[in-house]
Design a protein that fits this description.
Largest sheet: 10 strands, mixed
Distance between the termini: 80 Å
Number of helices: 13
Structural class: alpha/beta
Shape: globular
């Protein structure tokens, strides 16, 4: 009888272990494709696209299963559900590690809603047409219809918020603080200018600076490719930024190895402007030279193609960044090239700033662009990128992005949501704060490692 009981207990124990293993296996399922897709050309980039063959084919959306689970599911007959997380998961800000001022994140203040702006802005982003009309006809047309239908594959915890809402700005700063990020790189257009889907936002800068200062964050500027951007308008706009915002305690300055504390400006799509024009502004002998003036700074160029290295040198830039969160999309955004780019920068005394991201999916606004989707794989894609960046021993690491929701590269909190037409992606089985927590972990790791190979690990001047 005792032997029978013992055998029964063993069988029961094995059954329980089997059920537990099965549940864990289901929980840990991963997409069945590798994290990284095939390298894909530069078709999406201005001017570069005109010189490269169009690699997107009409059948790509059927052939590619790269996006796997990270696609929106349409035409569901279900009620609208938005899951809000409990506030118990909020970290205690006093117990967090110190901010890392060599970890920068790209931040966008272009969102609007009727309460604060009189209308939705950017959440209602149009569905962009492919440059080949034969491909365009196979995809939906029109604009998104917030608040339930937004131009993103994920849905923000804050809903379709306005960047003018002071409480939203404060929440964003608190989230960045919780992630131990020291500097936000603010997407910036000159006063009275904006991107084609937005409205001017320069008037928000004072509030962003004030809220950033409350959490000891610093603000630098990510200069967008505004209309007629050239050496003369850049001089005027850099002067405007420094004159108007340069005395604010949250205004970021980077301490160089020579001891100078200079403002830093990221210049998006810098390759559009000819090197000769940049040289007028960024070299000592330039006709519009900003060097050794009160408006001197560190100007960081976007490197897309390998050959841009030499244009950047001729232009007089102080460094390069790679921006795109899509490994393999461009030469600059491909992790395998970062060691070579760092060697190049070291040789010519440039700052190398690799850009990392948690993933990429822009099919809510470019439904034909499935080839460039990069699965998040529950945070593994992000950690792989951060690891690759650390191996290059960079002076600064940039993150794409805090809240570029259209391209699905955000680390801002997202929540589960489904409507009758769409199931949004989310960060489950993890919490909405997953990518903030991963950033905090790697920020601390980067800070420790950076101190072993540089001598300038003090906080920024301001």
């Amino acid at each position: 009888m005792a032997k029978f009981r013992r055998r029964t207990c063993i069988i029961l124990l094995l059954f329980i272990l089997f059920i537990f293993s099965l549940m864990m296996g289901l929980k840990m399922l991963r997409p069945n494709k590798p994290t990284f897709g095939d390298p894909f050309g530069l078709d999406l980039l201005p001017e570069v696209r005109q010189r490269t063959p169009h690699l997107v084919k009409n059948g790509d959306s059927q052939k590619s299963d790269q996006i796997n689970s990270e696609t929106n599911i349409k035409n569901l007959k279900s009620v609208e559900i938005t899951v809000k997380p409990s506030k118990a998961s909020e970290p205690n800000l006093e117990e967090l590690p110190p901010l890392n001022y060599y970890l920068h994140i790209f931040y966008y203040s272009w969102y609007g809603n009727p309460q604060f702006d009189g209308k939705y802005i950017h959440w209602n982003h149009p569905i962009l047409k492919h440059w080949d009309p034969r491909i365009t006809k196979d995809y939906p047309q029109g604009k998104h219809n917030p608040p339930d239908d937004i131009g993103s594959s994920f849905y923000p915890e804050l809903g379709s918020y306005s960047s003018r809402d002071p409480s939203v700005i404060e929440t964003h700063m608190k989230q960045m603080y919780s992630a131990s990020i020291g500097v936000l790189a603010l997407s910036w257009y000159p006063p009275d200018s904006s991107d084609e889907n937005g409205v001017p936002t320069d008037d928000l800068v004072p509030t962003i600076l004030d809220k950033a200062h409350k959490y000891n964050l610093k603000v630098t500027f990510h200069i967008e490719p505004y209309k007629n951007r050239d050496d003369q308008s850049m001089y005027k706009n850099v002067k405007y930024i420094i004159d108007k915002y340069g005395n604010h305690p949250a205004f970021y300055r980077y301490k160089t190895k020579t001891g100078n504390a200079l403002p830093m400006f990221y210049v998006y799509d810098s390759y559009i402007t000819k090197p000769e024009q940049w040289a007028n502004l960024l070299t000592i002998s330039g006709s519009q030279s900003i060097r050794n003036s009160p408006y001197d700074g560190l100007f960081i160029a976007l490197l897309v193609e390998d050959k841009h290295k030499y244009d950047i040198l001729q232009s007089g830039f102080d460094g390069i960044y790679t921006y795109f969160a899509t490994n393999g999309f461009t030469y600059g955004s491909s992790y395998e090239n970062w060691a070579k780019l760092k060697l190049f920068c070291d040789h010519f005394k440039l700052i190398f700033i690799p850009s990392v991201g948690p993933g990429y999916i822009d099919t809510s606004i470019r439904p034909w662009n499935t080839r460039n989707t990069r699965n998040r794989v529950n945070g593994k894609y992000y950690e792989t990128a951060l690891s690759a960046a650390l191996q290059a021993h960079p002076s600064v690491i940039s993150i794409t992005s805090f809240n570029e929701w259209h391209e699905g590269s955000q680390i801002e909190k997202a929540v589960p949501k489904r409507t009758s037409n769409t199931v949004y992606l989310d960060y489950r089985p993890h919490k909405p704060s997953l990518y903030l927590e991963l950033t905090r972990k790697w920020s601390e790791k980067y800070s420790k490692e950076r101190a072993t190979y540089t001598l300038d690990h003090q906080p920024p001047a301001s």
